[in-house]
Amino acid sequence: MTDDALMRERADRRHALARIENLIKNTPTMHVESSVLEAAGICHLTLCLEEDNALHHPRFFQPYQEELPLPENEEELLGFEPDPDRIMWEARAMELFLTKQFYKCGRYAALKYPHNPRPSGGYRKYYAVSVTDYWTGNCPHFKVMLESDAVGDDRLLRGEIMTFTDIMAARLRTKSLRPHIVAPILVVSLMGPRHARVLEAGYDGKTLNIRATRILQLLTRYWLGGACGQTEMEPS
After folding, report:
1. Region of residue 168 (left: phi > 0; alpha: psi -120 to 50; beta: else)
2. From which domain of life does this come (predicted)?
3. 1, 9 in Cβ contact below 8 A?
4. Other CB atoms within 10 A of residue 41 CB
5. What is the C-alpha separation between 203 and 164, in angstroms, rounded?
6. Residue 231: HSE in the Cβ half-sphere, 13 Å Cα cutoff
7. 140 in Cβ contact with 177 (< 8 Å)
8. Sign of the torsion angle spanned by Cα atoms 10, 12, 15, 16
9. Which pLDDT value is given to residue 103?
10. pLDDT value of position 120
């Protein structure tokens, strides 16, 4: 495979992602209907994080394998009814709770299992979004925590899809990731009234495949876990 062919493929995928983003950006509501997904070339699939359901597992992300501490003080978050008039406050409370749990588990794993690969779950803040990539190696994989003031249901959100397309295109412009033509994204999406789900997305050159859970499950293991899946261009 020539370097020119690889660069053309990366450019073609960036342009396709930009077309998807422009279409989704013009949807009139935050919730994107199935007819719009079909027109944009987006496939909305089921994601399941339980170990006994391999059919709907993430394709590009794997959970941290060792034991991790359970969250503390859950009653501080769950012990009162959500306020439908303050959805972003609720989302921020969930973000703070999860960020503390990820940080605690990351430190625990680094000390308890020093010979394992370092957990990937460090984070950097960008407005209301936490993001993380991998400490070692040139992995195109990326993780994001996203907040929205939308009331969550089974439909994908405009902000979720635009997060995927924007970051994927940026990763496909990154020189250090040149061998890769797939830039998978894992999103923890926090919505109202107190709803969270996990989404995984990868663009295969024809379709933006988005897999989404219905509820929050085994989340910390996937935030701290490693990368997997084929992201480089297959020999022609």
Report:
1. alpha
2. Eukaryota
3. no
4. 15
5. 9
6. 24
7. yes
8. negative
9. 81
10. 64
Please give the helix or strand (H or E) that residue 148 lies within, else none: strand 142-151
Q: d(Cα 218, Cα 7) in Å, to the nearest integer?
A: 37
Residue stretches of the chain with pLDDT short of 50 = 123-128, 217-218
The Cα 44–Cα 213 span in angstroms is 11
What would the two tokens of residue 222 be? Answer: 């996937």
Spatial distance between the Cα atoms of 200 and 184, rounded to a whole number of angstroms: 7
Q: What is the CA radius of gyration of the chain?
A: 18
DSSP-derived secondary structure for 171-218: HTT-GGGTTBS---EEEEEEEETTEEEEEEEEE-SS-EEEEE-SS--S
Residues 115, 226 contacting (CB under 8 angstroms):
no
pLDDT of the residue at 53: 65
Q: Residue 43 corresponds to which amino acid?
A: C
The candidate with the shortest Cα–Cα distance to 41, out of 61, 59, 19, 62, is: 19
Amino acid at 193: P
